[in-house]
Design goal:
The protein has 416 residues and is an alpha/beta fold. A hairpin with a 3-residue loop joins strand 10 and strand 11. Helix 2 packs across helix 9 and helix 7 packs across helix 9. The chain folds into 2 domains: 284 residues, Crotonobetainyl-coa:carnitine coa-transferase, domain 1 (Rossmann fold, 3-Layer(aba) Sandwich), CATH 3.40.50; 90 residues, formyl-coa transferase, domain 3 (2-Layer Sandwich), CATH 3.30.1540.10. The protein contains 19 helices and 11 strands. The strands form 3 sheets. The chain has a 6-stranded parallel sheet. It has a 3-stranded antiparallel sheet with strand order 7-8-9, with helices on one face. It has a two-stranded antiparallel sheet with strand order 10-11. Keywords: Transferase. This is Crotonobetainyl-CoA:carnitine CoA-transferase CaiB-like acyl-CoA transferase.
Length: 416
Amino acid sequence: MQEEQADARVVESQQGRVLDGLRVIEIGHFIAAPFGARVLADLGADLIKVEPLDGDPVRQWGEQPDGRSLWWSVHGRNKRCVTLDLKSAEGRALLLDLVEKSDALIENFRPGQLEKLGLGPDVLHARNPGLVIARVSGYGQNGPYRDRAAFGVIGEAMGGLRYLSNQPPGPDQPPPVRVGVSIGDSIAGLYAAFGIMAAVWQRDRAKGDGKARTLDVALTESMFSMMEGMLPEYGRLGKIKQPTGGGIATAAPTNAYPTADGEWVLIAGNSEPIFGRLATLIGMPDLPRDPRFAGNAARVANVVALDALIAGWTVRHDAAEAIELLKGADVPSSKIYTVADCATDPQYLERDMVREIEDPLLGPILHPGIVPYVPGDAASIRWTGPEIGAHNDEIYGELLGRSPEQLDALRAAGAI
């Protein structure tokens, strides 16, 4: 199977990538802007990542066999990495030369930091009037919180997610739990990537306006925008949406249910036909006619009793057996996956979402595949996260035309 997938990728590589020809500069750090940049790089953009001389701090995060970050292998993949001291005049001059040859720039410094460096949007646009700039920050480029420090977890808290990601309120309520990954950063990065493509499209399409645009993406607003009906329900009804644990406040049954072997199976039976099939499967075909469960609103109101009936069925089966029975009844279901489950799942493997990649610094390593999948496109993992400054000579020498002597002088001055 792996050989067939590899052959398919070779064929695809002859067809071009969807973002071939788009050049984007990343001067982000940690997660938000670099994640958005990786999405663009995976789809074929020429992504030039500008790092300080000691590299992006994420190079030091996560598990570190032989002192090399496994996460960085993914986080920095498909990017050409250069070092640059933006506090030096030589470093700023090099960045502006790169700007002149690029379509877009993505950054996630604190608001005002680019301006302090003498690299604000006015300066960047003076060098390249068509440059699209995506600025990612905690609270946005203006407002009373503009200058506060923030990371993704702050965006998750202020955006409303952290309050909701918990069990329902109770007397021994633990602190609201984290989702498990830096979801606030990643969603802000996705918004930035989408904004870049929208702005480039408007600039370059046949009847486009040819204008540059500066995008302002806030971590807090990115999370707040994901909160479904939470705000209109508060505005009209005064309702404060509460945590619901594993369930959904607006639909039932949808929850995780225990199994005989100590696993959990997630079942989503929240439409009338599906609920009917689920009721028949668990040996209670009359449930849809029970006034407590006749219609979604009634099921939501009586969800505790309904979940107990479903759990009484699941707990009599091992997880694998329960999944097979639910699949046979055409009821949406899944066990709660660990990464080991993800890495061996036939659906992920068939769609090349789990790939074994040869990292020259780490050896064989598993990478997640590329999202979105574009049939017929040649998007691929062209290389893994490179060493600090791995592409300095290639970018500054070949792209910007600096001579070997000039590059040596820049190194001696500490500019690159």
